[in-house]
Amino acid sequence: MSSSPLSPPSVQEVHVWQWDLDVCASDFERYWEMLSAQEHERADNFRFERHRRRYVTGRGVLRQILGRYLAHSPQAVALEYGAEGKPFCTSQPAGWTICFNLSHSENTAALAISSGFEVGIDVEHVRPIEESMPLQVFSTREREQFDALSDAERQAVFFETWARKEACLKALGTGFILPPEHFEFDLSVHGDTAPRFVGGDAEESTHWRIRALSPSPTCAGAVAARHTGWSIINMN
Ligand SMILES: CC(C)(COP(=O)(O)OP(=O)(O)OC[C@H]1O[C@@H](n2cnc3c(N)ncnc32)[C@H](O)[C@@H]1OP(=O)(O)O)[C@@H](O)C(=O)NCCC(=O)NCCS
Q: Which of 13, 119, 158, 203 makes the best surface tag, with the fewest CB within 10 Å?
């Protein structure tokens, strides 16, 4: 990956980067060197080697990209964490407010970068739906729409909706401390959208925009922000 400097996104943009987390040994070694002591410790706590390697590659590429925006080396990018674990970068140039959010599913990683407003991103490899999943994820209204779908439609709609909800909860920084039905969607709308209700409030939903991501034919994805009038710029 290039190390040339990058300009921050404008308020009408969210930069989206995507990469493969399964890399060769020499790239892995390079990413390992970019991580902090705290990240090394976390990497060493993974039970499975594949998960350890993917975490290191995710954090390494994240640091490399953030470093290009902030004009720091990857090692010098300073990360702190919100109350529910959302990472953010400190030590930005005066007046800069770069926000980011990372997501990974299997070997796919995606990173959203915004400036001046919080962003959330989620990617989900499409897989079989367990029986309990719709009950855990959907509101009563959403479940009625879901139940009316054909079997052929259900899997794609389920993961599209899940990615939207998780992206919104990650934009807020709460993750699943809030229930998934906090953000409620119209399941008949595909692609870019806005929630119908946020915490039961229709007015609050008008402040949100969700853009669809299609990292691959087997992956669903979404980017969310409590901010209107922005579009995705694909940076790959
Ligand atoms: C945030 C959350 C939805 C992510 O779930 P996941 O299945 O790991 O999903 P993703 O791959 O999309 O996201 C992971 C990335 O999101 C970021 N992240 C972590 N916590 C986050 C949060 N609260 N909000 C937004 N992003 C968060 C991290 O960059 C993380 O990747 P990394 O650890 O490799 O850097 C889930 O961990 C959650 O609900 N957390 C909040 C509740 C909680 O556990 N709090 C206690 C921790 S202090």
A: 203
Separation CA 15–CA 184 (nearest Å): 25
Type of residue found at 175: G
Best CA proximity match to 170, nearest among 117, 122, 227? 122
Q: Is pLDDT at 69 greater than 90 in this prediction?
A: yes
Please check whether residue 142 lies inside any domain of the structure: yes
Residues 127 and 228 in one domain: yes
For residue 33, give the CATH number of its domain.
Answer: 3.90.470.20
What is the 105 CA–ligand 1 centroid distance (Å)? 12
Which residue carries 């998780």 as its tokens? Answer: 166
CA 216 to chain centre: 15
- Amino acid symbol at 136: Q
Which among 66, 84, 118 is the best mutation to test ligand 1's pocket, defined by most ligand atoms within 8 Å of the CB?
Answer: 84
Write down which residue in 63, 85, 120 finishes a domain: 120
Q: How far apart are CA 122 and CA 140, in angstroms?
A: 23
Number of domains in the chain: 2
Min mean pLDDT across 120-129, 214-223, 226-235 is at 214-223
pLDDT 10s digits, 22-51: 999 999 999 999 999 999 999 999 999 999
Q: Residue 58 C-alpha to ligand 1 middle, in angstroms? A: 13
The chain-wide mean pLDDT, for the chain, equals 96
Mutate to test the pocket of ligand 1, among 18, 36, 42, 102 (most ligand atoms within 8 A of CB): 102
Task: Name the residue range of residue 110's domain.
Answer: 13-120
